[in-house]
Automatic annotation (TrEMBL), chains A, B:
It holds the Pfam family LacI. SUPFAM superfamilies: lambda repressor-like DNA-binding domains, Periplasmic binding protein-like I. It comes from Neoaquamicrobium microcysteis. Residues 4-58 form the HTH lacI-type domain. GO terms for molecular function: DNA-binding transcription factor activity; transcription cis-regulatory region binding. This is Substrate-binding domain-containing protein. Keywords: DNA-binding, Transcription, Transcription regulation. InterPro entries: HTH_LacI (IPR000843), LacI/GalR-like_sensor (IPR046335), Lambda_DNA-bd_dom_sf (IPR010982), Peripla_BP_I (IPR028082).
Amino acid sequence: MKRITLLDVASHAGVSRATASLVVRDSPLVGAATRAKVEAAMAELGYVYNLGAARMRAARSRTAGVIIPNLTNPFFAVLLAGIESALETAGLAVILANSNESAAKQDGFVNRMREHGVDGLIVCPAEGTEQRFVDDARRWGMPLVQTLRFLPGTSADYAGMDPAAGMREAVQCLFDFGHRRIGYIAADTLHSAHTERLASFHDAMAASGLDPLFVRQIESTHHTARMAAPEIMNRPARPTALICHNDVLGLGLHRGLSDLGVMPGRDVSLVGFDNVAEADLVRPGLASVATEPFKVGEMAARLLLRRIERPDAEVLHETEPTYFVQRGSCGPVRSTVSAVEA
Amino acid sequence: MKRITLLDVASHAGVSRATASLVVRDSPLVGAATRAKVEAAMAELGYVYNLGAARMRAARSRTAGVIIPNLTNPFFAVLLAGIESALETAGLAVILANSNESAAKQDGFVNRMREHGVDGLIVCPAEGTEQRFVDDARRWGMPLVQTLRFLPGTSADYAGMDPAAGMREAVQCLFDFGHRRIGYIAADTLHSAHTERLASFHDAMAASGLDPLFVRQIESTHHTARMAAPEIMNRPARPTALICHNDVLGLGLHRGLSDLGVMPGRDVSLVGFDNVAEADLVRPGLASVATEPFKVGEMAARLLLRRIERPDAEVLHETEPTYFVQRGSCGPVRSTVSAVEA
DNA sequence: CTTATCATTTAGATCGATCTAAACGCACGG
DNA sequence: CCGTGCGTTTAGATCGATCTAAATGATAAG
């Protein structure tokens, strides 16, 4: 039992190999009657197209490489879902790799992707990725899209999100509730998503005529955030509101504050970032700036398809806007702060 | 600027194409001095191995297809992470597809995977997948591993989880707290994971000498579960404890009950399934039966590698045990139930 | 000195498709 | 009747590796 090839199909249909090839590729050159004959033969023999052989002659391979720093994080999983969805619609298969935030592993994966002959790459660069990464891709003629994180100083397509609008709405909401002492809980990682959000915080505060009370860096896990709650609330300059770099920190802190008997929305206002599903499940609900990773994924895929089609098109930076979702964790500043401190 | 081939490497190193081929494949046939020469040439020319060409002659393609029903669900995302991790260690690249619970799409993906010449498939079958699915794979000689869900009546390797241990511990814990009126909240989907967990619930109850109070089906979303809380608590046979098919239902119900002023762990005990990270963040924490999707993913990958290596090996069903994680949402049954109803 | 043995190396066919360029059949106008 | 043009079809070369089977050279044995 050997593999059925185009040649088998062709002889079974009484045409040449070349004609059969034209049929599988939906070429307009082939006549309707011939096409029907060949298609019947294909069905009858159970022919399976061999993309591997095709890729050798033709340039395209109908695959794209996707490198994600951490699949365990639902945020990236949804991003991946968006990428997969859009690429699949365009007929490209996704070859997946998980860099685990290791730039070295990431380099290895890029090599493997090249060996597989992918038509292009979508990468959310691992921490510590160097500019060289993007330059190499350009040198190799490999279409590349960065997503969610952008390597400064590089020139490549980018699909990300713009925290500005959501952040401004969040700060405005807090301001309207009377908050003036607002702290920022940052993550300890140092990629562009971090600095972008922090910068947008500073901008939004300035727009409301406020100075940040403090910026505190915390490792981005539920546990560390939870444990950091006492330290944050007991600092001399006690905040009345906190904005967190993401919902991992926001939810962790939510729980940490509750443990202390400090009720979010009443004793302190709390804002997260990403609006994960669970933000709506804690009590009170965690107000959060919604970002839409699925849409960002689709956007990244579209940029890649465009780049594959037109390698010399101008470099694009596209961002998805964010918006604030108010929930119970934000409320009016308490008139008698001393009562809380007692 | 054309592509560097093995022939270029060979002539640059002063050997034949065949020898160069042996070097890239780490064959022991080639001498040390020659190997060094060829490797130097490869580095100098920036040679990239062409897996597409190799796959045409050789059988293996160093890729595996993975089809998941829903990437947006963190549970599957972690499963995927486990699969990816183990396959990558073995040098196989993952071609990913998201069936979105559509059997038709799933069929399409299997075809695409065949066209790509994958060495094997790991599939968590979409709802409504027919037995034919597994039979086809066997007929095609395509190594196949089912994971998390098992098509009844089929014979193929399977990597899943065994809810029995965790379920028994959960029921035992509730029993020890004095609970006798225990209801089960099931999902509305009908695959094997559903029936397995439900069956393990019945077994565990029987082992404690109890009869299930009721089994209620709910669509598996946070929102529906939350909305169903009143109906569940107001039924004539009011439960003192609830076990949920997964944490999506568990967390949704946790919030729904809280909304009613029914406090989990005090007024009713609540157990989830999967032990997602967020189970520890709500207040009180949601007790949950821990399953380890990452390990299941690794297990599925191992099974596939074994099957690829030995196509005729006996069919294996492997399961990862589960265990109960107690948290605040489980507590002693209240002596005066009427007080709650007031 | 010849022959057998062993470890290396290699030429040439081959995998299954696509590409190029030419050939084919047919209708039409001169 | 011939040349031209158009829509189809095709033979043969080709992509870049691997495979088979044979050649090569060095060493050991007879």
